[in-house]
Structure formats: C-alpha cells, structure tokens
Design a protein that fits this description.
This protein starts with a helix and ends with a helix. The protein has a single domain, classed as 434 Repressor (Amino-terminal Domain) (Orthogonal Bundle), CATH 1.10.260. It has 7 helices and no strands. The protein is mostly helical and 85 residues long.
C-alpha cells in the first residue's frame, strides 16, 4: 500500500482510533503536546490526510492496534514479503 491508500484506509477506521485515545483520557491536542506536534498534525494523520511517522508510532506505543494505523512503510514491507513468498 502506498501513502494515499494507507491514508484512505486509516480514514475508514478513524473513529476506532479516536475511541482508543478517549479510553486513555487523551485528545488530539494532548497527544500533540506530548509528542511535540500540532493538534492539526495529529488530526490530519488520524483522518488519513497525512502520514506523520511521529504520530503513527506514538499511537502504536499507546496501544492502538497496528492494523488500524496503516503505517505506509510497514504495509509496503509486508506486501514485499508476501510477493517474495
């Protein structure tokens, strides 16, 4: 999957990502402050407009399942591995 495809897929599950943040008592602004990025960057990443590695890996560290994050380089690596098999 390329960045655009990953973003589109992430957009479809954005509410599940938000629910995870809610469960931790975090919002996009607090996550942004915690990792040193703007709230807008967090939002744009969650809704699939951007693919900020910093945001995606912070979400992963917070326990958001990787399958919901659609991290471009992880997806590309998985696809390359499947093609070689």
């Amino acid at each position: 999957m390329n960045r655009v495809q990953c973003g589109a897929a992430r957009n479809k599950v954005r509410r599940r990502i938000q629910e995870h943040l809610d469960g931790l008592g975090l919002n996009m602004a607090s996550l942004g402050r915690k990792i040193g990025v703007a709230r807008q960057t967090v939002y744009a990443t969650i809704v699939g407009e951007k693919s900020s590695r910093k945001v995606l890996y912070a979400l992963k560290e917070l326990g958001v399942p990787e399958k919901l994050l659609f991290i471009p380089e992880v997806r590309a690596g998985a696809e390359n591995h499947e093609e070689a098999a």
